[in-house]
């Protein structure tokens, strides 16, 4: 992980940049366009969006106006809960790429587990075989939900994008994904701003002469997670990328890990999909 363009290699050989630019809650068109263009100008080459974010068109406009060649960008979108099912997913994909102004995605994710996830996955497999998606994966899946999906899957998930921050580490899920060669990715790494109140992180910020955001993003990377911070402020977008010139000690990583208390700031996947069959280890 030498710089902003450093990447991990997914199970099928596709290169995915470790650091991406998130767009959740970037809903105002001009703000989205300007933020994504700024990120691409700084050097980000991984852009994460979703149909649910209602900003795919703006993201597509920003990519076009940036003049960065499409093939240099790792572009991610997701199929929403209400669009799941085989035929509906195929239609949702067509809608997404039309809005994004592209003819393929680098990664397409099932946004949340659902009763229709196996049918949805079959649609993703079809699109992958047709080379319209370079890699397929999931978001917010627990161990049991992954096992349920993988029972009948022909192609295994390449990525699981989950809520991950110092208060929610999910060690069992991390171990499972690593054993199954599923790349982990963190959403909301900064706990929607709550990390800035944690004293340990304030202390580490002083020790390393880095911001708390930079400490956490570096922690994400050293824990083996792709990370996708979001900002609309140009200097913060740049600051979030300035994390490749230092390294946290194992001792400090363990201190951050000790903050884990299973606290979610987003939805609980088990409550999103309460009827999924529990599959024993």
TrEMBL record:
Keywords noted in UniProt: NADP, Oxidoreductase
Location of the NADP-dependent oxidoreductase domain: 19-261
Cited PROSITE patterns: ALDOKETO_REDUCTASE_1, ALDOKETO_REDUCTASE_2, ALDOKETO_REDUCTASE_3
Protein family (similarity comment): Belongs to the aldo/keto reductase family.
Keyword Oxidoreductase among record annotations: yes
Species: Clostridium oceanicum
UniProt xrefs under Gene3D superfamilies: NADP-dependent oxidoreductase domain
Protein name according to UniProt: Aldo/keto reductase
Oxidoreductase listed as a keyword: yes
Pfam families: Aldo_ket_red
Highest taxon of source: Bacteria
SUPFAM superfamilies the record matches: NAD(P)-linked oxidoreductase
């Amino acid at each position: 992980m030498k710089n902003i363009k450093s990447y991990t290699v997914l199970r099928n050989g596709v290169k995915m940049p470790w650091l991406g630019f998130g767009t959740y809650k970037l809903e105002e068109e001009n703000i989205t366009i300007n933020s994504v263009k700024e990120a691409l100008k700084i050097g980000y080459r991984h852009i994460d969006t979703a149909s649910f974010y209602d900003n795919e068109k703006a993201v597509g406009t920003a990519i076009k106006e940036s003049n960065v060649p499409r093939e240099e960008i790792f572009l991610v979108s997701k199929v929403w809960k209400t669009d799941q099912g085989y035929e509906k997913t195929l239609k949702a994909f067509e809608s997404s790429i039309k809005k994004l102004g592209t003819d393929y995605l680098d990664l397409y994710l099932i946004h949340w587990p659902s009763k229709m996830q196996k049918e949805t996955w079959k649609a993703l497999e079809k699109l992958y075989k047709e080379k319209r998606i370079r890699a397929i994966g999931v978001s917010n899946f627990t161990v049991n939900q992954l096992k349920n999906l993988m029972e009948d899957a022909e192609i295994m998930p390449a990525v699981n994008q989950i809520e991950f921050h110092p208060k929610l580490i999910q060690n069992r899920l991390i171990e499972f994904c690593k054993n199954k060669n599923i790349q982990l990715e963190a959403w909301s790494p900064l706990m929607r701003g709550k990390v800035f109140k944690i004293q340990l992180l304030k202390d580490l910020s002083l020790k390393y002469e880095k911001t708390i955001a930079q400490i956490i993003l570096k922690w994400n990377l050293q824990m083996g997670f792709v990370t996708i911070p979001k900002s609309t402020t140009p200097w913060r977008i740049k600051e979030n990328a300035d994390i490749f010139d230092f390294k946290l000690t194992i001792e400090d990583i363990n201190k951050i890990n000790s903050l884990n208390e299973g606290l979610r700031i987003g939805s609980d996947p088990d409550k999103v999909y309460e009827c999924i069959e529990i599959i024993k280890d």
